[in-house]
Specification:
With 186 residues, the protein is α+β, with helices and mostly antiparallel strands. The protein has a single domain (5-184), classed as tRNA wybutosine-synthesizing-like (SSo0622-like fold, 2-Layer Sandwich), CATH 3.30.1960. The protein has five helices and eight strands. The chain has helices at 5-15, 27-38, 76-85, 108-120, 155-184; strands at 42-48, 51-56, 66-70, 92-97, 100-105, 125-130, 135-140, 145-149. The strands form two sheets. A four-stranded antiparallel sheet has the order 1-5-7-6, sandwiched between helices. A hairpin with a 4-residue loop joins β6 (125-130) and β7. α2 (27-38) runs parallel beside α5. The relative contact order is 0.18.
Length: 186
């Protein structure tokens, strides 16, 4: 009997512990990931539904780079409190990051079908990554905001930033919901 290599890799991937700091799927992407993983031709390898973060302005990734992180919309009082509690006197970046999703596909044709679903859901940034043994589709939201902030940040400007960041998160989640609806038809 010949082993189905795709199914073998899928089983191994889905058995692995989640390597994210939360150790679970983000709520806004969970149903989509579950639907993808129930299909015979796809499985997720990594995902993030989008987030708002405050990070240290350092050139490389570090273990303690995050000063604040939320995968939900953020209130003014929440971010204000986080900024007041931060004891970091160097450059800080305010970021709103869009979703990212990596999906392993059984065949190149399956990958192309996923790209069609993503296009129909309004996702503009997408592509296929291939190796000898795997075909991966990468989907990224384009709703992004990133800028340095200083101690002179006013409450009014912070409120403006949060309104924009939360609006962009909502748009990224709408695209995920549209993609999830396309998987109901599978």
């Amino acid at each position: 009997m010949v082993r189905d290599e795709f199914e073998f890799r899928k089983m191994n991937q889905l058995r692995k512990n989640d390597k994210s700091s939360e150790q679970r799927w983000d709520d806004k992407i969970k149903e989509l990931c579950e639907k993808i993983n129930k299909t015979k031709d796809y499985y997720t390898t990594s995902s993030c539904a989008g987030r708002v973060v405050l990070v240290k302005g350092i050139p490389k990734k570090a273990e303690d780079i995050f000063l604040f992180k939320s995968h939900n919309k953020v209130s003014f009082s929440e971010i204000k409190k986080a900024l007041e509690e931060i004891n970091y006197k160097k450059l800080i970046y305010f970021k709103q990051e869009p979703f990212i999703l990596h999906v392993a596909c059984r065949t190149l044709e399956d990958a192309e079908n996923l790209l069609d679903k993503a296009r129909d859901a309004g996702i503009k940034k997408k592509g296929i990554i291939t190796t000898r043994s795997r075909v991966i589709v990468e989907l990224n939201g384009t709703e992004k905001l990133e800028l340095p902030i200083t101690e002179e940040l006013t409450d009014n400007y912070l409120k403006f930033l949060l309104k924009e960041a939360n609006s962009r998160l909502e748009r990224t989640w709408e695209k995920l919901a549209k993609l999830e609806r396309r998987f109901r038809k599978v």
